[in-house]
Amino acid sequence: MSVGGLVGWNSGSVAECYATGTVEGNQEIGGLVGNNYVYFGHLENCYATGAVSGDASVGGMVGYNTGFVGNCYAIGAVEGEEDVGGLVGFNEEGEIFSSYYNWETTGQEDTGKGEPRSTAEMKLSSTYEGWDFLDVWRIEEGQSYPVFLWQLGVLPSGFELEIEDKLVKPDHAFQIRIFNAVGEDGKLLEGPHEVTVHSDIEDEVFKDDAEFVDGEALLLITLSTEGYHKLSISVEGISRSRQVTVAVLATDFAGGSGIAEAPYLIEDAEQLNMVRYFPNSHFKLIKDIDLGVPPYNEGEGWEPIGNEDEPFQGNFDGNNNIIKNLTINRPEEAYVGLFGRTVNAVLSDIKLENISVSGRNNVGGLAGSLEEGTIDFCQVSGSVEGKNRIGGLVGANYGGEIASSSADVDVFAFGDGVGPSISTGG
Predict the structure, then answer these.
(1) Per-position DSSP letters for 208-267, written without gaps between them
(2) Sheet hosting strand 88-91, strand order edge to edge
(3) Which pTM was predicted?
(4) DSSP 65-121
(5) What long-range pairs does 145-153 form, CB within 8 A, spacing at least 24?
(6) Whole-angstrom distance, CA of residue 104 vs CA of residue 99
(7) Are 301 and 330 in contact (CB under 8 A)?
(8) How many Å apart are CA 110 and CA 57, to the nearest integer?
């Protein structure tokens, strides 16, 4: 089982890929992926053209799906006995977004797990709602199915950003690096091009020519107003802008420089909240902290440190101090806890008391997920609730090591009428 034209069993990200070969098997048979597995299974901007056949859970793109499928299509013939679909054979709580299959060539007409379209419709860009036909796809209107720019040897127009520091002090200049800037002619930018930077707090904060060399330029930006600035950056000759968030705060840590020999020292809630802006650094708690104060106990409460896109990968030493009254109310979110998603992180000597944590997937008091990291001598008390992968200490442990730790936590799994709650531990 779990047979796919590109990947048999997927618990990661697959993007801008395709498969054309014939796929045959018994169960979980897909033209691209056999089994696209829960949460981490993410297929985006992909297609499959080969014939697919099997017994159960057979689909032109995915055989069995509990993950995400977005902006995908399939056109190969599909044959099976049970749970068969033109795009997805069997979908169990997975999310399928703006994805299509050719009902004429697949021989299928199912809906709700991929939308059926005719051959003529599949060769029109208007069929593919929300698809990016500038930077990802190309199509010959009425003549061909969509293909990738990279298949045609065309560099997509756009650019990437690298920010010197996501936490800056008011009126202190910081650097933004623009790189891999490609114009609409498919070539790296050269020479002067006007760059504009807008802040959602201060409006226009930069507008001037930047000198590009091999698609790269440096900007020097200064922000004056404290707060979380969402910066929108646009470059002349490139139609798409990019965004980055910068925190402007006058507060600093109680000491240290963030390295192993001199970790950042934390003595209050505001400094603890700043940890998220230095996800690869070392920290040490030097006082007890009460999070049962505004804004951390209002609305959605505490925002977990580390998310799917930017996990916490540092070292946090609780130093046997107590963090109490952690409140999180995010019942539709994943990676929920004091820390959200952690990768190769080290969490030690942390005590959490009287917590109230609510999330959906990968929910834990200390961490939503622990991936290839360590937790030592940590304690949690209070309550945790969620839908899938819920634990008093950690929601999901992917190859990490947990030792000498405990949880005195009431753990609740809630349902939504769609399917059962899974993987719940106290």
Answers:
(1) EEEEEBTTBEEEEE---S-EEEEEEEEETT-S--EEEEEEE-S---SB--SBTTBPEEE-
(2) 7-10, 33-36, 62-65, 88-91
(3) 0.60
(4) ESSEEEEEEE-S-EE-SEEEESSEEEESS-EEES-EEEHHHH-----SSSEEE-HHH
(5) 145/47, 145/49, 145/73, 145/75, 146/47, 146/73, 148/16, 148/18, 148/45, 150/16
(6) 16
(7) yes
(8) 13
Report the range of poorest mean pLDDT among 212-221, 224-233, 377-386: 224-233
Query: Residue 248 has what pLDDT?
Result: 87
Contact 236, 193 (CB under 8 A): yes
Q: Residue 103 phi/psi, 5° resolution?
A: -70, -25
The type of residue at 245 is T
- The string of pLDDT tens digits covering residues 113-132 is 999 999 999 999 999 999 99
Give whole-number Cα distances, 59 to 28, 174, 331, in Å: 8, 50, 32
Beta strands in 241-378 (DSSP E): 242-248, 264-266, 282-285, 289-290, 315-317, 322-324, 327-329, 334-336, 339-343, 346-348, 351-358, 361-364, 367-371, 374-376
pLDDT, residue 414, reads: 76
Q: Among 250-259, 312-321, 348-357, 399-408, where is mean pLDDT lowest?
A: 250-259
Residue 282: other Cβ atoms inside 10 A? 19
Are 89 and 80 in contact, with CB atoms under 8 Å apart? yes
151 phi and psi angles, rounded to 5 deg: -65, -30
pLDDT at 40: 78
Instruction: Name the pLDDT band for 296 (thresholds 50, 70, 90).
Output: very high
| Angle at the Cα of 220 from the Cα atoms of 215 and 223, rounded to 5 degrees | 135
- Both tokens assigned to 325: 């009254």
Contacts of 395 (CB under 8 A, 6+ apart): 335, 336, 337, 359, 361, 362, 363, 364, 367, 368, 369, 386, 389
Give residue-wise pLDDT tens across range 150-192. 898 777 778 999 987 777 889 989 999 999 999 888 789 999 9
CA pair distance 344, 347, nearest whole angstrom = 10
What's the length of the chain?
426
Structure tokens at 184: 């609409």
> Which amino acid is located at 41 in the chain?
G
CA 347, CA 141: separation in Å to the nearest integer? Answer: 54
Helix (H, G, I), strand (E, B) or coil at 193: strand
* Single-letter residue type at 182: V
